[in-house]
Amino acid sequence: MDPHHRKIDLQSPADLTYLHTNIKHSAQQKLDLAIPASAIPAKEPDDSFRPQVQQLISDYITQTLTLALPSLAINGLDAETSMLVDDKNTNESVEDESNYEPYDPRLAERLRTLYRQL
After folding, report:
1. Hey, which of 4, 15, 50, 87 would disulfide with 10, CB 3.0 to 4.6 Å?
2. 3-state DSSP call for residue 106?
């Protein structure tokens, strides 16, 4: 397997929104199969299990796509965190952003050159 991969190229920010929406929709369908709303007893309307699971899934999807952003290029430009719109978490900042550097093609090329010299 080649250790030097190209970025995933999307044509527009709408493509990223489309992917995010479809992933969330698919996760919602799986959640509906695993924990159907009809399975919650009527005498317990304040059951917090399903909403907690929904929030955990939503957070996981958002975090996964946020961590994947440095490997995405939208119309030749680097993808930014602001392009990933999450309807519930729009005011939250990304905590792990400082742990990862964005993809630098010049640095990657220099690394390939150094590998060839070895």
Report:
1. 15
2. helix
Confidence grade of residue 86 (pLDDT, cut at 50, 70, 90):
low
Mean pLDDT score of the chain = 79
pLDDT band at 12 (very low <50, low <70, confident <90, very high): confident
**Distances in Å between the alpha carbon of 57 and those of 9, 14, 38, 103?**
26, 22, 20, 27
What does the alpha-carbon distance between residue 116 and residue 105 come to, in Å, rounded to a whole number? Answer: 17
pLDDT score of 81: 78
73: number of Cβ within 10 Å: 16
List the 8-10 sheet strands across, edge first.
8-10, 72-74, 77-78
End-to-end C-alpha distance for the chain, whole angstroms: 18
Which phi-psi region, left, alpha or beta, contains residue 63 (left: φ > 0; alpha: ψ -120 to 50)? Answer: alpha
Prediction pTM value: 0.60
Cα–Cα distance, 34 to 72 (Å, whole number): 32
